[in-house]
Design a protein that fits this description.
about 100 residues, alpha+beta, about 65% helix, about 10% strand
Length: about 100
């Protein structure tokens, strides 16, 4: 258990030294700000009165092919988040173990 705690503390120290934590904070903040400005929700008395995504209404007199499909938007956002999480996890793993190989030689 002591070795695991030491490994975690060394990894966090390495991430701080390379400013990875600050970069992740900045990127996640920018994503949240973008989503906050992209989604315009009108909530009245606890119910959703209206929704706009990038200025488009999800329902209206538009044809079905041109109407905003929120399910497609959610699937696209989930795909982007999953892909970003995969690559960030891979990069964090590389950063955490980058100093091990030269020390072994």
């Amino acid at each position: 258990m002591l070795q695991l705690r030491g490994l975690i503390s060394l990894t966090i120290r390495e991430l701080r030294a390379r400013k990875v934590i600050v970069g992740l904070f900045v990127v996640s903040t920018l994503v949240w700000v973008l989503l906050a400005f992209a989604l315009n929700l009108d909530v009245v008395d606890g119910t959703l009165a209206g929704l706009r995504l990038f200025g488009q209404e999800p329902e209206g007199d538009q044809p079905v092919q041109q109407a905003l499909n929120l399910r497609d938007v959610v699937v696209a956002v989930e795909s982007v988040v999953a892909g970003a999480a995969y690559w960030m996890g891979t990069l964090l793993g590389l950063f955490a173990t980058a100093s091990l190989l030269p020390n072994m030689l």
